[in-house]
Amino acid sequence: QVRLVESGGGLVQAGGSLRLSCAASGMSFSSLTMAWFRQAPGAEREFVAGVSWSGSSTKYVDSVKGRFTISRDNAKNMVALQMNSLKPEDTAVYSCACRLGMIVKTTPQQYQYWGQGTQVTVSS
């Protein structure tokens, strides 16, 4: 059974930074890709960033490019999302997800396993 556990969420002022982490267990395939999604109140779940588990490919939604960085540590089975220059519109529940495949996808239907989510609140 695959389990994903997020941490690092919290309350931060606009312009500040947070670093989210996702610890994965129960994975035996190096071809897994990891991604972060977010969902704000009244909005659809949105792809934020993704990284190939065994490769170097990354993908970001346009609204976070240049501000967020996704990274991985395969030895620790961890994926992180460094979020800088945070804006109030970044406020959402951020969830970690993984899929079996080499390509980063941007739709939640492509991901089979999900963490519980961590709240990120950015005040103006």
Strand tally, please? 11
The residue fraction in helices comes out at under 10%
Strand proportion: over 45%
The parts where pLDDT drops under 50 for at least 5 residues are none
The end-to-end distance, rounded to whole angstroms, is 40 Å
- What series of H and E elements makes up the topology? EEEEEEEEEEE
Mean pLDDT level = 93
* Rg, alpha carbons: 13 Å
The outline comes out as globular
Biggest sheet, open or closed, and with what strands and sense?
7 strands, mixed
Q: What is the number of helical segments per DSSP (H or I, 4+ residues)?
A: 0
Q: State the secondary-structure class.
A: mainly beta
Supply database-style keywords.
seven-stranded mixed sheet; four-stranded antiparallel sheet; 124 residues; 11 strands; mainly beta
Please provide a written account of the structure.
The protein is mainly beta and 124 residues long.
Lay out the secondary structure.
Blueprint: E1 3-7, E2 10-13, E3 18-25, E4 32-39, E5 46-52, E6 58-60, E7 68-73, E8 78-83, E9 92-100, E10 113-114, E11 118-123
Parallel strand pairs: 2-11
Antiparallel strand pairs: 1-3, 3-8, 4-5, 4-9, 5-6, 7-8, 9-10, 9-11
Describe this structure in a few short sentences.
The chain contains no helices and 11 strands. The protein is mostly beta strands. A hairpin with a 5-residue loop joins strand 5 and strand 6 (58-60).
